[in-house]
């Protein structure tokens, strides 16, 4: 299987639009062939800001999954699930909250930013403060190695790494760790035990990273070691304890340059979107009525594509030839704006056609979607419960 495990979540707070498709979903579709992928609906995260409009969340959960499937996310390749159907996320969130300093949460940049941005809502809640920690639980519970996120979410992944480190630091050293690590070293056998010790000391005293690598490959070759002993020896090597939670890496997805109908970034709050499965007539109408270069009042006026939002869409959707045609036609008043818009309309419709078709399948038989999610939740719970077993044990909660 894959060595990497990719995990990402999306909050179900509104219909997905072409900005989500170009910015996130295309990337998910690509990654599902290259990595083990888990994608989930972050419905609890949506409640942190939309606690007073539960109907919005309810309505958007299933629509969003259909949008994912429509965009080409393939349930045979990726695991799709809903956060609240894997209650282990909540348990890990609670347990991690025991070791999370308040100051760390207050310092996460999105905390104050979002409070200010959404000032019409009262976000001085316990749940909202804990948003990044819930996200950490989402990530750590699957021991995800990579988390594809936009730039605004990078601090959350960084925060997650710090939580993992703190957890391992506090709980990774089981009682008698040194003795157990020494006993495990002996099990390597005389020569290898000696080599391991030399390499360990060389790394710890001189920071020799080659020694660290050699020691790691030495351990990798030891097939007879138990899982616990292996982990101990890896931990002992770097001076820390056992790695119970692993640190994920942010995978920065190229920020979507998807322009909206008015030339600003496409966003629900600017009311300038085309939704993923919008019907053809509406897409056509929206693009036909898009504003163009304001200086081009009459058909005979020359225009400047740099001042026109339609040109931004040509940059996303058109090939070189079409772009040339539009650029020259605009600057020379050789074409009219309606003419100029037609290839963009055609390209958007062509992009959406397979999406609408795929979606129809699921709209005709909603039980397909329910089953996909039920399967995904089951798989996710299995993975989550493995981590929870280790976490409970480390925190002294595995009784009898
Ligand atoms: N906070 C993310 C966002 O607003 C959504 C999210 C929740 C998430 N949990 C996650 C993303 C875990 C990646 C990994 O976009
Ligand atoms: Fe915009 Fe095209 Fe009209 Fe020029 S011709 S103003 S690029 S729509």
Throw out a few tags for this protein.
400 residues; Rossmann fold; Tyrosyl-Transfer RNA Synthetase; 5 strands; 58% helix
As a percent range, the share of strand residues is 5-15%
Distance between the termini: 34 Å
Summed up, the domain count is 3
| Average residue-wise pLDDT | 94
The tally of helices reads 18
The CATH topology of the largest domain comes to: Rossmann fold
Main β sheet profile: 3 strands, parallel
Task: Give the strand order, joined by hyphens, for the main sheet.
Answer: 1-2-3
- Unreliable sequence segments: none
Which small-molecule species are bound to the chains here?
Answer: tryptophan, iron/sulfur cluster
- What portion of residues is helical? 55-70%
Structural class: mainly alpha
Number of strands: 5
Per CATH, the class of the largest domain reads: Alpha Beta
Shape: elongated
CATH architecture of the largest domain: 3-Layer(aba) Sandwich
Q: What series of H and E elements makes up the topology? A: EHEHHEHHHHHEHHHHHEHHHHH
Q: What gyration radius follows from the Cα positions, in whole Å?
A: 26 Å
The CATH superfamily of the largest domain bears the name HUPs
